[in-house]
Design goal:
Elements (H helix, E strand, L loop, with lengths): L10 E12 L2 E12 L3 E5 L6 H9 L6 E6 L2 E2 L5 H6 L2 E4 L11 H6 L8 H14 L16 H12 L6 E5 L7 H16 L3 E5 L3 H7 L2 E6 L2 E7 H6 L1 H7 L6 H4 L23
Parallel strand pairs: 3-8, 3-9, 6-7, 7-8
Antiparallel strand pairs: 1-2, 1-4, 4-5, 9-10
Helix pairs in contact: 5-6
Length: 275
């Protein structure tokens, strides 16, 4: 089902008919979707669906063979990653990306590396630490000494140093223990509440869709379904395919047979068995 614009919704990012891939083969095959301004859009789907390829195309790491990607109406497909970064799109990669032997302060400061005004960078750092006060005690520590969840929060803080208009998160829960996921998801909600548009790819489909205002399901490089996060979460077909069963009623509201952390025990790669 192609992505349809929501009534009254303003797209920050629009992907239209994008074909892209590697070595002459298309992974994305005519993908169209919108990332609504001021919302959290979560993309879910099985392994190999094209989720990471989509993010690479958005951030400029992969040039689409065909189609358009626009940010607030301005084309960005084919621009360099640095140019897209200057336009306000910052990506936090799936794998931890901090420099382990550098301090937390130094790592966060690298988020402002394209700023020439050092006083502006210091003001940005002060603002980021106000948003993430838990990071302040870690500033003098080496990043490698932090836990996985703490490193993820530092990566979020670093991503805000350029005051981006959109933050792209590639599977932020990857490799994290269930007990620390809540703090990571709370940080995503907080960034969104501070006005950041979020584009999120999440392996934990239930948690990601519950967190999000809008949801998109990718399958075999195409958009299978899109709608509000709640609509996608509760869609019976998608529930059967990717969530281990339809999510309705009490389960959709966060109770029922969920993990103790409330994020859900089934990720977006399970569930196609028996089909």
């Amino acid at each position: 089902m192609p992505a349809q614009p929501e009534a009254g919704a303003v797209p920050a990012l629009a992907v239209e008919g994008v074909f892209a891939g590697y070595g002459g083969g298309d992974v994305l095959r005519g993908v169209s979707l919108q990332v609504v301004q001021g919302g959290i859009t979560c993309v879910v789907g099985p392994n190999g669906a094209g989720k990471s390829t989509l993010l690479r195309a958005v951030s400029g790491l992969l040039r689409p063979r065909e189609g358009m990607i626009t940010l607030h109406g301005e084309p960005i497909a084919g621009k360099s990653p640095r140019a897209i970064l200057k336009m306000g799109v910052v990506q936090v990669p799936q794998n931890h990306s901090l420099f382990r032997e550098m301090t937390v302060r130094e790592n966060i400061g690298l988020g402002a590396y394209i700023l020439s005004d050092r006083r502006l960078a210091e003001r940005r750092l002060a603002g980021v630490l106000e948003m993430f006060p838990q990071v302040t005690p870690w500033l003098g520590q080496k990043a490698g000494s932090l836990s996985g969840g703490q490193q993820r929060l530092v990566e979020f803080a670093r991503s805000l140093m350029l005051d981006p208009v959109m933050v792209v998160l590639d599977e932020p829960s990857m490799g994290l223990a269930p007990k620390v996921l809540r703090s990571v998801y709370d940080a995503i909600r907080m960034m969104n509440a501070q006005g950041k548009t979020i584009l999120l790819v999440e392996q934990n489909a239930r948690a990601g869709l519950r967190l999000s205002t809008h949801g998109v399901v990718l399958e075999n490089g195409q958009v299978r379904l899109s709608g509000t996060g709640k609509e996608v979460l509760e869609h019976p077909e998608i529930g059967a395919l990717y969530l281990g069963g339809a999510v309705t009623g009490a389960t959709a509201n966060g109770s029922g047979a969920e993990g103790e952390d409330g994020t859900g025990a089934v990720n977006g790669t399970a569930s196609r068995a028996g089909r």
